[in-house]
Amino acid sequence: MDGLELELELSGSVPTHVHECAEECLLLQRDMFRGDILLLEGEYQWAPGGTSHDTLSSDVGCVVFIHGAVDPALKQYA
Asked: Do 17 and 55 touch, CB atoms closer than 8 A?
């Protein structure tokens, strides 16, 4: 298992991706959209293995802690 702190800049985004293994996220600062779902500071998200989700984006920038089988593509945002 891996873990990283992901910081999205103002109006930043992460493209749609598939989770090969389970991954959990905790939004540490500000807010973020997962597709059209707004996640607020302090909220938790669980992504079971084999699932995917829409683009992650933030109009105001945000910091997220990700734990699990972190997609190598996400590490470029850390």
From this structure: no
What is the C-alpha to C-alpha distance for residues 6 and 25, in angstroms, rounded to an integer? 10
CATH number of 2-77: 2.60.120.10
Query: Torsion angle, CA of 2/28/19/45, rounded to 10 degrees?
Result: 120
On the 0-12 / 13-18 / 19+ scale of CB atoms within 10 A, 21 is middle
* 65, HSE (Cβ side, Cα atoms, 13 Å): 9
- Give the predicted TM-score (pTM) of the model: 0.79
What confidence category does residue 18 fall into, taking pLDDT thresholds of 50, 70 and 90?
confident
CA-to-CA distance for 27 and 25, rounded, in angstroms?
Answer: 6
